[in-house]
Amino acid sequence: MSLRSLIPMARMTTRASTATPRIASMTQLRFNSTAVPSTPPASLNEGEKHLYSKLFEKFQPTKLVVEDISGGCGSMYQVEVVSSAFKDLNMVKQHRLVNETLKEEIKGMHGIRLTTKASA
């Protein structure tokens, strides 16, 4: 099999893989319309629950995801917040609000990965 014969297969694979995220994101949008519980889910560890509670109290989000991505030691978190509090704010200002809310917690972290969005 030559390299030239593999190129069309690679193109087909690329096209197929780009269609899947669109479907997933549309499904995700439907789920975002449900209310976020004020109490952290039981599946979260203590650090995740603490961040969840602080962010929920401050932003009353329509979507809130907090995940310890450091392997459980609490040094790196991935946080997604969708809230009406971010309306008319650019991404930098949205992130500053979250950073200010978690100022003390961030001091003890290696890093935080933020995704923010204004709810519709």
TrEMBL record:
UniProt xrefs under SUPFAM superfamilies: BolA-like
Superkingdom of source: Eukaryota
Leader peptide range in chain numbering: none
Pfam families documented for this protein: BolA (PF01722)
Entry's family note: Belongs to the BolA/IbaG family.
Descriptive protein name: Bola-like protein
Organism: Linnemannia gamsii
